[in-house]
Structures are given as structure tokens and as C-alpha cells.
Write a structure and sequence with these properties.
Oligomer: single chain
Number of helices: 19
Number of domains: 2
CATH class of the largest domain: Alpha Beta
Largest sheet: 7 strands, parallel
Radius of gyration: 22 Å
CATH superfamily of the largest domain: 3-Deoxy-D-manno-octulosonic-acid transferase, N-terminal domain
């Protein structure tokens, strides 16, 4: 079946060659495609750990795991990779990781080139990056592959069932899986991972540190008074920004001094969002253009990478995007860790467990549309006691749910030490 998979990729491989030739006109894109095609290989000492995560959210976990490994085994070389450009911009470098690069395209031979360059003692995949050629070529080289923070959403299971003949020979070789939940563990067993190698280690996102930011300094940077109500809409998705802007306009009717911080998931949509705001009579300062005079505008448009976690600290209340549209939601724990009341929409299937946990502890509110978002924001701005109760509930949840990082690193180091398939430790 792997032969058929690679045959199906032949046209895509030709297209990638053409894309790389086009990208060669710009040095940054040329370097990207050199890494994606395994033409430029990482330089790193052998016998370390290669940690891979797909995009921005997973890259934060890559950094978390890398720091924890480095704290416990400082001599182990650490390599870090991802798939997306936004993730690549945030991959950790020295001293957290010794090499950072794009994951090669999953064409036959390309993962093997990188494996031969890195020569890791273990390959660690964050969540669900089960690429067939990557798994196959790691097994050919006797490189143990682990999954940490493992998650298999129901819609992903549909694809694994359809492609069972492709994955059934590959996933039994996984050295260990640390799943987020019992349900995730059951699904990994269903797709063929031996039961004795699967355990529940918990969700690493509960262990992400609180943002290292000074909210007073940030407010001063943006020209905002300490008592100006700030609403942050983070990681908004395509088709969601208009709803956020409509909700903010409704808030302004009751709270005319409210200030919006709007951070799209993909910064290339910034021009479009600025036009949407202007069509509603709203003016947004652009973070990339500097923040002087931002407080005199209606809000701030975050068109740079890596700032959102810190910006949550200035919020009076926050909304986490990808949830009013059927994307599945993004990291709802990030504003909770910043001590901010959290709101999100009905579509949270990518973050269902922490979203429901926040609802149960009173740390979050779920809204169904722009009207409910505006009403919830307005109500929270008028009720500081409720905001305090929400943040206290979320803080208690975070304290009670931590520890996944220790269990995950125990799993990784057991394989690095022994080089044998491991039983993932359950909490």
C-alpha cells in the first residue's frame, strides 16, 4: 500500500519541483523549499531527540518539551521541526534547540535524508503527525518514534479507517504513545498501536507557562489608560473577523471606551480585515507599523507573529477564534493562563477537552454567534466580580491539571535511554 501511496504522490512531487523553482526568486522562500525538499539538511550532533509539531500551537509544545528535556538532560542534542511558515517563525533555536527546520515533504527518500543528517535516538511527534514515509523510513533506520500529547479527533479517525491498509503496517512500530485522554488512547489502539505502548499522559497545554509580559508596560506602549477596557480576539479564522467586529460594535454602545485587539490566525489576512473594519467605520492600528497613537484608534490589528500570548495579559476579556466558524478552535488555555476570562464559539472539536473543562469550572463562556459574543463581552465588562470568579475557576483548573510535561518527558527519555519500545506512563 505504501507503494501506491508514493505512486499517487508522483504528480505532487513534480509540482513541488516547479514550486521550488518559482520560490528560488526570493532568498527566504528559496531556503524554505531547500528544507522542504531535503536539499538543505540540518547540522547537529547525533544521538539526540528530534521533536516535530505541525503549526503554531504545536510549535509551542515543541518548545515546552525541548526545554524540559534540556533541563533534565542538558547534553542531549535537540532538533525541532514543523510544517507551516507561521510555525517555522516560532521554532525555538539555541539554547533550547540546536537545529530548527521545515519537515521535509513526505515523498519517498526525503524524510530519510533528514533522519540520516540528524541521526536521532528518538523522533517525537506532537499530537498526530503520522506521515507514512516518515514512519517507514524511521523504522528502516531503527529510530524509535513516539507520539506525545497524542490526539485523534473523530474526523481524523474517518481517514485512518479509510486508509487502514496504509497505516496498519506502520503504526505498530510506534515505540510509545502518550495520549491526551482515555478516548484518544482508545483511538490509537484502534488504528493499530499495541495496547501496552499506549498510555494517558494528559494535555501538555495545561503546562504551558503564563505569558512573560508586563500588562502595564504593554498598555503604555499602546497609549491605553489602565482603566480602558480591552477585548482581545485571538487566532480568528477566515469568515470570523466580521463577526468579531460586529460584536465589538455592539459592545461600544454600552462601553464607548472599549478597545479591540484583533489577532488573526494568519497574518496575511490583515489587509482584508482592515478593510472590513473600515467598512464598519472602525479604524485599527497595525502592530507591524508601530504602536504610536494606537490608543486613539478603535483597536489594534496584530499583523505580526509571536505576540498574542503577551497581548492576552492586557485583556479585560478574551475570545479564542476558530470557534464561531467550523475550524475547531485554538488554544483556549492560553488566555486562561494569562488570568483572563475566556469566551469561545460552538466549534471546539480540536480543543474539546480543555474547552469543556473550562466551562465546567466556570472559567469560560460559550457563545453561538456575533450577537451572543457582543452581549457576553458587554456583560463581563460591567461585572468585575464575575470576571474574578471566572479567572479563579480557570486558575484552579490549571493547577489541578498540570503534570503532562513530566510524564511526556519520562516517556521520551525512557526510549532515549533504552532504545526500546516503551509503555507510556498513565496519570
Amino acid at each position: 500500500m505504501l507503494t501506491l501511496y508514493n505512486a499517487a504522490l508522483v504528480p505532487l512531487r513534480a509540482a513541488a519541483t516547479l514550486r521550488a523553482a518559482w520560490a528560488a526568486r526570493g532568498p527566504q522562500r528559496a531556503l524554505e523549499w531547500e528544507e522542504r525538499r531535503a536539499r538543505k539538511l540540518p547540522s547537529i550532533e547525533p544521538d539526540g531527540v528530534w521533536i516535530h509539531g505541525a503549526s503554531v500551537g504545536e510549535v509551542k509544545l515543541v518548545a515546552l518539551v525541548a526545554r524540559a528535556i534540556r533541563a533534565r538532560r542538558p547534553a542531549i542534542p535537540v532538533a525541532a521541526s514543523c510544517v507551516t511558515r507561521t510555525g517555522r517563525a516560532l521554532l525555538p533555536g539555541p539554547p533550547v534547540a540546536d537545529a530548527a527546520f521545515f519537515l521535509p515533504l513526505d515523498f519517498r527518500g526525503l524524510p530519510g535524508r533528514v533522519l540520516d543528517a540528524v541521526r536521532p535516538r528518538a523522533l517525537v511527534l506532537i499530537e498526530t503527525e503520522l506521515w507514512p514515509n516518515l514512519l517507514h523510513e524511521a523504522a528502516e533506520r531503527s529510530v524509535p518514534v513516539l507520539v506525545v500529547n497524542g490526539r485523534l479527533a473523530p474526523e481524523r479517525m474517518v481517514w485512518y479507517r479509510r486508509l487502514a491498509r496504509l497505516y496498519r503496517p506502520l503504526v505498530p512500530a510506534l515505540a510509545g504513545v502518550g495520549a491526551q485522554s482515555e478516548e484518544d488512547a482508545r483511538r490509537f489502539i484502534e488504528i493499530g498501536v499495541p495496547r501496552e505502548r499506549v498510555g494517558v499522559t494528559g494535555n501538555l497545554k495545561y503546562d504551558l507557562p503564563a505569558p512573560d509580559a508586563d500588562p502595564g508596560r504593554l498598555r503604555k506602549r499602546f497609549g491605553l489608560d489602565l482603566d480602558t477596557p480591552v477585548l482581545v480576539a485571538g487566532s480568528t479564522g477566515e469568515g470570523e473577523d466580521g463577526a468579531v467586529l460586529d460584536a465589538f460594535q455592539s459592545v461600544r454602545r454600552r462601553h464607548p471606551r472599549a478597545f479591540l485587539v484583533l489577532a488573526p490566525r494568519h497574518v496575511e489576512r490583515a489587509d482584508q480585515i482592515e478593510k472590513e473594519a473600515a467598512s464598519r467605520g472602525l479604524t485599527l492600528a497595525r502592530l507591524a507599523e508601530g504602536t504610536r497613537g494606537a490608543g486613539a484608534r478603535d483597536g489594534l490589528l496584530v499583523d505580526t507573529l509571536g505576540e498574542l500570548a503577551g497581548l492576552y495579559t492586557v485583556a479585560t476579556a478574551a475570545f479564542v477564534g476558530g470557534s464561531l466558524v467550523p475550524i475547531g478552535g485554538h488554544n483556549v488555555l492560553e488566555p486562561a493562563a494569562a488570568g483572563i476570562p475566556v469566551l469561545f464559539g460552538p466549534y471546539t472539536h480540536h480543543v474539546e477537552e480543555p474547552a469543556r473543562a473550562l466551562e465546567r469550572c466556570g472559567g469560560a463562556l460559550r457563545v453561538k454567534d456575533a450577537a451572543e459574543l457582543g452581549a457576553a463581552w458587554s456583560a463581563l465588562l460591567s461585572d468585575p466580580d464575575r470576571r474574578s470568579r471566572m479567572t479563579e475557576g480557570a486558575a484552579a483548573l490549571l493547577r489541578a491539571s498540570g503534570g503532562a510535561i513530566e510524564r511526556s518527558v519520562d516517556l521520551v527519555l525512557s526510549v532515549v535511554r533504552d532504545g526500546l519500545p516503551a509503555a507510556a506512563g498513565s496519570r
